[in-house]
Design goal:
By secondary structure, this protein is mainly α. The protein is built from 7 helices and no strands.
Length: 141
Amino acid sequence: MADIKTCMKSGDKDRLGVLRLVSAAVKQREVDDRIEIDDPAMITILDKMAKQRRESIELFEKGGRDDLATIEKQELDIIKIYLPEALPEAEIQAMIDTAVKETGASEIRDMGKVMGILKPKLQGRADMSAVSALIKAKLSA
């Protein structure tokens, strides 16, 4: 909320618009679930918004709408500021290896067990669809 006020005072309309979208998503979740948003829930909301932007960017680029893709990229950059720092791929791979060993996963059908362990640790710090692809590759080999 402090950043929204700062953006209003400075006239940063692009950032203000994105922060208002985040604020609206938070309020919607609080009303729908009748909860108060804590840090893990906030990360989940921001991660979902970032994923939506990444998917939109991909679709806009495929459709030749670079103008709309640029807007989505700018929004994604603002959202990323509020997410925890992304983990390097080597660290993600190490976490996957550890989770596979812990669960004893050996086949694709065991993927849910591995994701169950990793999702709380990686939420907001890695693209979960990319993590899913890495797990599939690991379990397929």
